[in-house]
Amino acid sequence: MSTNLTNLHFDSKIIPRVEVLTLNIDSIIKEYAAKKDTFPKVFSRMPLVLDISTLPSNLLELEPVIKDAVSQLVSGLRALEFIPIRIIGCSELIANECGLNAAEQVTAEDNVQINAKSTVSEHLPSTKYITGSVRGGVTIYDPDYDDLIILGDVKHGSEVAANGNVFILGKLAGRAHAGHKQQDSVIFAMNFDPEVAGINGLYLVNENIKVENINKPTLLKIEDDSSISVTSY
């Protein structure tokens, strides 16, 4: 039976948090390499908060071991083009030596959101990140960006659109439109139950979605230039 190496938490109001459950750093790096290989547009340049507070207390007391492990983890994630910016559960000295900020916890009020946005925009100006859910009645579209990543839900009655790909790391219950300027664009949602989903002028409405695709991680892309293929995982 496999054992989790980490838990990756997507909260609708804060950036993703990686809960580290082991000091097997090589295996963690392989796990995140696989995530990026599967969905490169979603995970490339994604800001992360690392959380080692759930490690056994006897390990956390071994400061040289923790320092070495955190350094390896940060270096490995950065090599994969993730952006670790904060860490929970270690000393400020270790955090600073690894180029991170230390934190007791991360909340919606924490300015980590601001740091994450500025870091991402510096490295990947073609992707717009929204940290939080999109409420009903709200429309998100920025013509200056290619891709759109929502770190939250797209609520019923709301609409999100992008020139390129749309990635929703929460529930898609509203409307999503991809491919305004790029025909090979995709839509991905961690929980798929949209009112309407469209790519480059082709549309899929809720009543035409198969039951087996509802409320599952789902990828939409154009097939043969004439229809939208729907793949759930």
UniProtKB/TrEMBL annotation:
Septum formation inhibitor MinC C-terminal domain: residues covered: 130-226
Coiled-coil regions listed in the entry: none
Transmembrane segments: none
GO biological process, one term: regulation of cell septum assembly
InterPro entries in UniProt: CAP/MinC_C, MinC, MinC_C_sf, Septum_form_inhib_MinC_C
Keywords: Cell cycle, Cell division, Septation
Gene3D superfamilies referenced in this protein's UniProt entry, alphabetically: 2.160.20.70, 3.30.70.260
NCBIfam families for this protein: minC (TIGR01222)
Record PANTHER family: SEPTUM SITE-DETERMINING PROTEIN MINC
Function: Cell division inhibitor that blocks the formation of polar Z ring septums. Rapidly oscillates between the poles of the cell to destabilize FtsZ filaments that have formed before they mature into polar Z rings. Prevents FtsZ polymerization.
HAMAP family on file: MinC
Family: Belongs to the MinC family.
Subunit structure: Interacts with MinD and FtsZ.
Protein's recorded name: Probable septum site-determining protein MinC
Record organism: Photobacterium kishitanii
